[in-house]
């Protein structure tokens, strides 16, 4: 799996060796040489852009699309009522060059998608009754755990489920936690998919390539 980076809750963090492009907007998505994936037409709720991640030369390598309620960091209400699902698309790259151009990084795999999805869920999670000063330590510990879990998708922490991708049944690795759920799989179109959510069951979801990214803008 790709090289780890310590990250915080901010979307501007460096993720697995991929600095995010910074800010939201459709331009970064339009530069991608691969198809974006979102929930299929069975989902009729709100859709919204999040951010893309790019290499040091500006090439877009991954990004996320949101569905449902735009999540906030959960820490106030005893009962979380947000319902959202975020789909992460990661380009399948056998070789990635290092930032200084002198070497290569590990290939992107389904574990890359699982890692980014797990990290995404953490970015919108703040356990109830946790002091603000303790969250950085908690987030670092949970980030490490998410990386370890993503690196071993055959561990007992994961189960499998079949969900449609472009109308074809596809196997996903799936896990739940008290903060939500994470899943990851691979399409036949040169990308890996990750997803995470809360308040919306993963079992009824389907995914499809986005025909017009402007519908998310």
Strand and helix map with partners:
Blueprint: E1 14-15, E2 18-19, H1 26-30, E3 37-39, E4 47-54, E5 60-68, E6 84-91, E7 96-97, E8 104-105, H2 110-123, H3 135-150, E9 159-165, E10 168-177, E11 180-186, E12 191-198, E13 207-209
Antiparallel strand pairs: 1-2, 3-13, 4-5, 5-6, 6-12, 7-8, 9-10, 10-11, 11-12
Q: How widely separated are the two ends?
A: 31 Å
Number of domains: 1
Topology as H/E string?
EEHEEEEEEHHEEEEE
Per DSSP, what share of the residues sits in E-state strands of 2 or more residues? 25-35%
How many DSSP H or I helices?
3
Largest sheet, spatial ordering of strands: 4-5-6-12-11-10-9
Decide which structural class fits the backbone.
Answer: alpha+beta
Query: What does the largest sheet look like?
Result: 7 strands, antiparallel
Overall morphology: globular
Helix content: 10-25%
- Low-confidence stretches are 1-23
Overall strand count: 13
Task: Describe, in plain words, how this protein is organized in 3D.
This protein has 217 residues and is an alpha+beta fold. The protein has one domain (14-202). Helix content is 16%, strand content 33%. The protein contains three helices and 13 strands; from the N terminus they run ββαββββββααβββββ. It has helices spanning 26-30, 110-123, 135-150; strands at residues 14-15, 18-19, 37-39, 47-54, 60-68, 84-91, 96-97, 104-105, 159-165, 168-177, 180-186, 191-198, 207-209. The strands form four sheets. Strands 4-5-6-12-11-10-9 form a seven-stranded antiparallel beta sheet. Strands 1-2 form a two-stranded antiparallel sheet. Helix 2 (110-123) packs antiparallel against helix 3. It starts with 13 loop residues before the first strand and ends in an 8-residue tail after the last strand.
């Amino acid at each position: 799996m790709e090289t780890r980076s310590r990250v915080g809750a901010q979307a501007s963090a460096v993720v697995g060796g991929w600095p995010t492009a910074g800010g939201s907007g459709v331009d970064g998505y339009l530069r991608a040489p691969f198809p974006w994936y979102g929930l299929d037409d069975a989902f009729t709720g709100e859709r919204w852009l999040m951010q893309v991640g790019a290499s040091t030369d500006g090439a877009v390598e991954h990004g996320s699309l949101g569905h449902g309620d735009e999540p906030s960091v959960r820490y106030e209400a005893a009962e979380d009522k947000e319902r959202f699902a975020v789909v992460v698309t990661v380009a399948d790259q056998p070789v990635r060059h290092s930032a200084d151009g002198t070497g290569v990084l590990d290939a992107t795999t389904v574990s890359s998608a699982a890692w980014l999805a797990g990290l995404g869920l953490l970015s919108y999670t703040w356990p109830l009754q946790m002091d603000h000063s303790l969250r950085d330590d908690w987030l670092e510990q949970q980030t490490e755990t998410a990386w370890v879990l993503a690196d071993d998708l055959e561990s007992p922490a994961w189960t499998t489920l079949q969900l449609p991708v472009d109308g074809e049944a596809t196997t996903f690795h799936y896990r739940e936690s008290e903060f939500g759920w994470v899943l990851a799989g691979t399409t036949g179109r040169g990308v890996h998919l990750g997803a995470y959510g809360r308040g919306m069951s993963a079992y009824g979801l389907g995914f499809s390539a986005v025909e017009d990214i402007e519908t998310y803008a």
